[in-house]
Structure formats: structure tokens, C-alpha cells
Amino acid sequence: MERKFANFETKSIHTADPRTEAFGSLTVPLYMTSTYVFPSAEVGGARFAGEAEGMIYSRIANPTTDVLEKAMAELEGAEAGLAFGSGMGAISAVLIALVKSGDHILCSDGLYGCTYGLLTMLKEKFNVQFDLVDMADMERVRAAMRPETKVVYVETPINPTLKVVDLEALSEIAHAGGAQVVVDNTFMTPFLQQPLQFGADIVVHSATKYLGGHGDLIAGVAVGRKAFLDEVRFSTLKDIGSVMAPMEAWLILRGLKTLPLRMERHCENAQKVAAFLAAHPKVKQVYFPGFADHPQAEVVARQMRGSGGMIAFEVETLDGGRTLMNSVRLAQLAVSLGEATTLIQHPASMTHAVVPADVRRDEMGIADGLVRLSVGLEHPSDIIADLEQALAKIPVASEALETVHEDGPNSAA
How many CB atoms lie within 10 A of CB 261? Predict the structure, then answer.
């Protein structure tokens, strides 16, 4: 019997209800199988022809991943979902399915480094053009649209600068120009933001992050219209093969049950940590959607349920940033985000190193001294204390000058 629930917290636990499966298992069974036995040659032929439902091969579908796909569709308010072996697997499959040689993709002026790398490859090898544009300014978006623009691709909040994009206004412009809107919702999760409600066509996630929540898997998900995702399943998923393993699907389903609780704590902790950083004399600038004076505060309030667990901030120098990251004790110096542990990293030399320096600084607004912080689930006072002791190790300008003088060419050291 199909059951519908009004509240996200209940959906996150009960959308993956396995009781229709064999033995009445309370949790979703883990189907570790590569292939499936057909009851007859006729049934096998009908399934391959798309005339009958049923499993064929786990590169196309698996009962465990099938439950995850349905759960994610329910949580995002979509017709269907599709699971992939990584977040980049989801992004690649969706974009390749949507464009051909000569087409154009319009992108937000900040992107995950590997997404930028994919777009560069599509441009150089397959003549798919792309441009970055400041999507905080809808007039610039209108001006950047071309007749050959088929996709408007956006991160919001943007990685790592945390700029926010008005999805409703953006979708109106994109659809008027005949383009589809693809939104990377990794930073927000469906608990904090549901882009399809604001006109987006497809949503992608790196499920590696908050959806899994424990830093122990690599996976991706896309949600949207069933007809489109069926096309992707039997083309770019099947033929390129970025397939999610059933164990990863099982782990994500487990993670979804605690997603609302975890996201509430991530948001609460990040709000306190951001306030601390904003008041610290050695922090030059803090980027965080939860600030009342955020440039898109009205959009944040209308579009997002919370501000998320990500913070970006700048210190005065690149060396100061290195000192900070080498001095933390609780936070871990690692890429990725969205797990229980607080993670800290340097985008310019790590996640966004593939982006040319001029594009990274001038078009994306990623300063060399920018630090990205994924605020974890530890007690906020412990996170703050760790950052405070690490920031204390960054010398002030006068101290740095004295150190240079003492350790110069005539120094005994």
C-alpha cells in the first residue's frame, strides 16, 4: 500500500519502505548481484525491448539502488531519480545527454573544479561551448543567453564562494530561451532546498557528501522528469557506465534517515562558527549565506530552509592560510564535505586547482587566500576553540616582518 507523508523528517525515514520485498525485512535488502535470471526467453526479450518491467543487469538497475532512486525523487519532489557511481558521474551523464556539438551551456560564475574540467573537455574535444556569468544579476544572464544555449547550469550556494542564485528568476529566463536548468544541490540537500519547486528541470547531487553523511562512500544522484531520466539510464549511464554499487545505495539509504537531524546540527554549528570568524581580527572576509547582510538574503529566506554547513573565509595571505590549515587539531585537512567531521581545505590549490588562475580569481572570485570549511557535528565550542588556536599561530604583519629580518641571509640559523 502506497503511503504519503507531509513532512520531510518522516519521508526521510519511510520513503525507503522495503516491506513489499521478500521476508518483510525492516531495512532495505542489499542485492549483491550483477545479473538476473529471466523466467523465459520471451520475458527476457520483452525486458530488453522495454515492453516489460523487471531487472536485466545491475549496470542498468538494481533493486537496492531502485529504492534509493525512488526515495530521492520523493524527497526532491521529482517524478524519478537515477543513481550514479559518483557526483561527477551524475553531472557528466546529464550534461552529455542534454547537449551535442555546437550547443552552449551557461554556467554560474563559480563551479566545482571537476565540473569546470568536464566543461573544458566538452569544449576542446566536442565543440560544446560554455560561459560563466554572474547569476546574481539577471540582466547579465539574459545578455549571456544564446540561441544555441541548451542548458543553464548552476550551483547555489556556489562552491566555494557561497553566492546564492534566485532559481525562480533564473528558470524563467532559461525556459524563455529554450534551455533547461540543471542545479547542483549538493551543498543544500533536499532538506534545505528543493530546486524543482522553483522551476529547475534536473537536480544533481554528489551523494558522497551530506546524503551519505559519513565520509565512507562515493556516489551521485540525479532527479527530474521520468522520461528524461529513462533516456539517460539507457544511454549515458548504461553506455559510459558510471554505475552506483548496491552497497553505496544501501549506505545512502541509511544516511537519509538521519539527514534532517544532521543538517539541522550542521546549520546551527555553522551559524556559530561563522559569527566567530566574522569577529576575528585575523579573518579578512567571511562568506556565509546565514548572515543577515548576505547580498542575497531575501533569496536565501525565500528559497532555502537553512543556511547549510559550509563557510568560506579569507585570511590576509596565502602563507597565513597554510599556517591555519597546518595548525588545526580537531578539523581535518581534507577535501570533500558534509560528514560528521569538520573539514578544512584550500580551494585554489586543491578542489579548484584545475581552473586557470585568472579564471579562478577574476571570474569565480576565489582568492588565493580563501579557505573552505565544512562545519561538522562536533560541539560548536570545540570547533571554535580549534580555529581560535590555529588563527593565533598566524603572525600579524609586524611579527612577520620581524621574522623575515631575524631569519634573513645573515641569520645564524
Answer: 13
